[in-house]
Design goal:
By secondary structure, this protein is of the alpha/beta class. It has helices at about 15-25, 75-85, 130-145, 165-175, 210-220, 255-265, 285, 315-335, and strands spanning about 5-10, 30-35, 45, 50-55, 55, 65-70, 90-95, 125, 145-155, 230-235, 240-250, 270, 290-300, 305-315. About 30% of the residues lie in helices and about 25% in strands.
Amino acid sequence: MGYKVAVVGATGNVGREMLNILSEREFPISEIAAVASRRSLGTECSFGSTDLKAEDLETFNFEGWDLALFAIGAEATKIHAPKAAKAGCYVIDNSSLYRYDQRVPLIVPEVNPKAIENCSDKIISNPNCSTAQLVVALKPLHDRATIKRVVVATYQSVSGSGKDAMDELWNQTKGIFVPGQEVDPKVYPKQIAFNVIPHIDVFMEDGQTKEEWKMVAETKKILDPKIKLTATCVRVPVFVGHSEAINIEFEEFIDEDEVRQILRESPGILVVDKRDDGGYTTPIECVGEYATFVSRIRHDPTIDNGINLWCVSDNLRKGAALNAVQIAELLGREVLKKG
């Protein structure tokens, strides 16, 4: 049995990854459409060995389509996702629009798959990229020893800000070595090449940035509202791949060897943790991979029941496109097949 699937925002970084992953994972498809804004009309998008021409979102008719993977901004999603859902098409949305709506499930399939049962409005939300990899690593440990508090510092790649940000990093880097070709910041408030910027999204009244607030709110919604979490989110001069330094305080004692073993046996996680030079994963190694990589597992001697770890993932994949396709797979198994 195959499904009719539309990828909305197919010409962007995440949309193209969605098409790649649907093909790689052999998602059962009877018909597929690449949909984008009018300015991208006719742009070719690859789906396996097939080239698709982008169709106009403004005139696309979602009636008869089983599901749509949305990779467009919140404003456009606000207009078109309800239209698709009203037409009977399930929407898996990668924007922030519905993440904090209690009527809309926010899903990471390795963590809260049962939330798919609550999609009566036919809209399902994909979490923020930094949250997705975090909760994949936290879930099996929370099940074992109950997490009280998490302190996380993120090191987020520029692809999380889109193609213009990747171009800005590339051009600024070149400009540093070529006199007269310096590039002023446009996407970011400060130079990103050879720099780090402790500022992602807008500032809030309490001093947090919106990205930091998202990690707190989404972790509570996906995993457990009782978990206390504080985050510092930093943009780094890396093209693809988000990294996180995570400090976890548990209710119960858990040995670092048991942490290592639990994570090795958990879905979606690959442990690379040797106490040798290079015995850990960096963003370069995670690009193009499905897994969330965990390294540097060790006790935190400053608190009772504390563990530190390092977590890396391809933000265009697990942080966005892969998670959306995994939700589609879950939807196919648990809802569409039964409906």
